[in-house]
């Protein structure tokens, strides 16, 4: 997919490869080939654009690998008969990408939203390779008992009308570009976030991600998030940086507590005046701190 709009702070040339036969994944590979690897995984309904400023702040020294998940961003958006839109598929795709790039050693894992489930899901097989963590408004464990699924997500997950709104009028991506921040996005930034999701067909993944939210037995991703939750505390011996916008109606203080309990030695930067897209609201504060964290904790 090509976006014919200005992409602020995104001066990159994305690369592509067939992550599955006939299905191309777009990804960024920025920085020196011999640099320490930082794998940045976005969620729904964003794309690699979310990580753009961090890439710009790291690529002089660090090798930044930033995929657009299948169906998202600039990657292909196949129909259901060509691709299974499940968490396991996303995990497998990350493994295929890293294999394709010949990345076999240690990495820093940076995650946001569904990127947590995908990244820590990859970690179920490769935990020893994850040597540092950057965690932003995400989850990698079952929905906390104290945190019910918001009605709007349940509506999008379980109802035909919810699916119609997400795919028909881009309700999820468009709304997130407003309610996901406390400081209104500049118009060109907001347009860049929603640009990949411009037709019914191109919104398939934004809907399928919502439908894949695991709430209990019988949901395809449930065994994965249970396993991730059990394993999370095993990362407590590794440097971790947590950045959190507390004005997130999904990944709120309950999810933050899940991470701080499991990673008690993490650097935590939580903001009462930031939302889900914490790197939009607090880039000026967070980017130098993230760079300092990586520089101070070499692989």
From TrEMBL:
This is Alpha/beta fold hydrolase. One of its GO terms (cellular component) is membrane. The keyword Phosphoprotein does not apply. Residues 37-282 form the AB hydrolase-1 domain. SUPFAM superfamilies: alpha/beta-Hydrolases. Keywords: Hydrolase. GO terms for molecular function: hydrolase activity.
């Amino acid at each position: 997919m090509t976006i014919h709009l200005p992409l602020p702070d995104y001066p990159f040339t994305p690369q592509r490869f067939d992550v599955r036969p006939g299905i191309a994944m777009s990804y960024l590979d920025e920085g020196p080939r011999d640099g320490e690897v930082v794998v940045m995984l976005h969620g729904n309904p964003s794309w690699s654009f979310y990580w753009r400023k961090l890439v710009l702040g790291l690529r002089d020294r660090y090798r930044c690998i930033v995929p657009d998940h299948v169906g998202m961003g600039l990657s292909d958006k196949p129909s259901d008969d060509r691709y299974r839109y499940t968490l396991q598929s996303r995990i497998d795709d990350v493994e295929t990408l890293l294999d394709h790039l010949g990345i076999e050693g240690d990495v820093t894992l940076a995650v946001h939203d569904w990127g947590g489930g995908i990244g820590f899901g990859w970690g179920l097989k490769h935990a020893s390779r994850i040597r540092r963590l950057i965690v932003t408004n995400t989850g990698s464990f079952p929905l906390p008992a104290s945190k019910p699924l918001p009605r709007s997500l349940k509506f999008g997950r379980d109802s035909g009308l919810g699916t119609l709104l997400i795919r028909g009028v881009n309700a999820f991506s468009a709304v997130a570009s407003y309610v996901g921040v406390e400081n209104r996005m500049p118009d060109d930034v907001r347009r860049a976030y929603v640009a990949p999701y411009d037709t019914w067909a191109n919104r398939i993944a934004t809907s399928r991600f919502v439908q894949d939210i695991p709430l209990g037995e019988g949901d395809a991703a449930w065994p994965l998030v249970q396993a991730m939750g059990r394993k999370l505390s095993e990362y407590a011996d590794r440097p971790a940086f947590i950045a959190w916008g507390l004005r997130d109606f999904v990944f709120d203080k309950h999810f933050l507590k899940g991470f701080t309990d499991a990673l008690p030695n993490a650097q935590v930067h939580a903001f009462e005046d930031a939302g889900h897209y914490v790197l939009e609201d607090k880039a000026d504060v967070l980017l130098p701190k993230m760079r300092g964290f990586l520089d101070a904790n070499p692989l």
